[in-house]
Amino acid sequence: MPTLSLSTNVPVDAVVAADILKDCSRALAKIIGKPESYVMVSINGSVPMSFAASEEPTAYGEVVSIGGIGPGVNGKLSAALAEILETKLSVSRSRFYIKFDDVKGHNFGFNGSTF
C-alpha cells in the first residue's frame, strides 16, 4: 500500500505525467521492497508554490507506507525521486522536499477494510 503524492508548481502534461507515474511507481516498489501492484502514485502540477521565497520550479512529496521505509531507505528513495523530477520537470534536487510516514496497518484502509 505504499503511496506517493507529489505536488509541483511546474505544469505537467498528460505524457510527462504518465512517465513520472511509471518511473516513480517502479522506483518506490524497488527501493522499499513492496510489490508494484500495491503502489499508488499521484502528481498534481501547476500548484501555486514557492520555495525560499521563489516561484522557480519546486516540488513537495509525501510517501506513506506500512513498513519498508526508514533511515536506511529514505535517503535512497529521496535521491531516486529527486532524479526523476529533475529529469522530467527540471526541478532541482535542492528545491524538493519529501516527507516519509511509516503507518500502522490499522490506520490505512483498502478494499473496505484496514490492513
Automatic annotation (TrEMBL):
The keyword Secreted applies. GO terms for cellular component: extracellular space. It is found in: Secreted. It catalyses: L-dopachrome = 5,6-dihydroxyindole-2-carboxylate; 3-phenylpyruvate = enol-phenylpyruvate. It comes from the Eukaryota. GO terms for molecular function: cytokine activity; dopachrome isomerase activity; phenylpyruvate tautomerase activity. Keywords: Cytokine, Isomerase, Secreted. Its EC number is 5.3.2.1, 5.3.3.12. Belongs to the MIF family. This is L-dopachrome isomerase. The lineage of its organism: Eukaryota, Viridiplantae, Streptophyta, Embryophyta, Tracheophyta.
